[in-house]
Amino acid sequence: MSISTSGLHHVTAIGGDPNRNVDFYLRTLGLRLVKTTVNFDDNGTYHLYYGDSSGKPGTLMTFFPWPDAPKGRIGTGQASTTAFSVPEASIGWWKQHLEETGVEVSRIRNSDNEDTLTFRDPDGLVLSLVAHPQGDPREPWDTALVPAQHAIRGLHSVTLSVTREDETAAMLTDDLGLRFLHQDGNRLRFEAGDGGAGALVDVLVTPNAPRGLTAAGTVHHVAWRVPDEQTQVSWREELVDKGVNVTSIMDRQYFRSIYFREPGGTLLEVATDTGGFDIDEPLLELGRALKLPPWLEPRREQIEAMLPVLDLPKENNPEVVS
């Protein structure tokens, strides 16, 4: 493959109650809601984007929260764990902070000498906070509840659960341009671009595990970065030429996307770095108002009537006077 990704762009999951989702990711994890919009394929649900102060690629976790969504099952054919990067000295602070909010936490140190906390969000989604030993220079979102010295820097890695690794590993290296780093038991690690936090994926091989069921508490898809639309067009053509079943390029308002599945079953996306979340509202006001793309704006009244009222904590826009 002549084109390679530089790392993770975002991870999208399915949630339940949107207000519970907002409260956890803003107040407990200290992320910023950088865009409140809707699922462009199902306008009756929100699409909520969380990240750093501006929602830069590589910091984003997004959700489709359906209030009455059935419970999913985490298993093979999915991204089974989403990990965020935090400062190495902050793991103790995070353990105390999470436990004080009623979150059950387990702590390990993995083969890469990364101190890791693993826990679940209110819908059962498996998350980790990882203290990457090489550090992470990305600037965090700073709030009174999660101060900058401890705050999440962005995505660290994702874990893809598969029943066999050979075809998945081949797609990661041959079609996405990742490099194989090492294997630790039934876990293989790959890295993209310059490596490090935000550019890692683990492949967990569990031949006898049940197949995942995509619903509340599970990841819907994992998105990888591409610098611009021209490169994305070339990349799509190369994937099609190799026989990969790829969607057409889709306008997601804040970036452009293509989608395809890796052989183990996980839905992957390639999303452009170009675009950004301040194209339709000021940086200081990100996430406050429901934003719709031009083709849905004529249906705003109908769409708003279908959506539950979202109670956005003041921590999301501390410099905006109401």
Automatic annotation (TrEMBL):
Residues in VOC domain copies: 7-132, 154-273
CDD domains registered for this protein in UniProt: PcpA_C_like, PcpA_N_like
Organism: Allokutzneria albata (Kibdelosporangium albatum)
Protein name: Glyoxalase family protein
PANTHER family attached to this UniProt entry: RING-CLEAVING DIOXYGENASE MHQE-RELATED
Gene3D superfamilies reported in the protein's UniProt record: 2,3-Dihydroxybiphenyl 1,2-Dioxygenase, domain 1
InterPro entries xrefs: Extradiol_RC_dioxygenase, Glyas_Bleomycin-R_OHBP_Dase, Glyas_Fos-R_dOase_dom, VOC_core
Domain of life: Bacteria
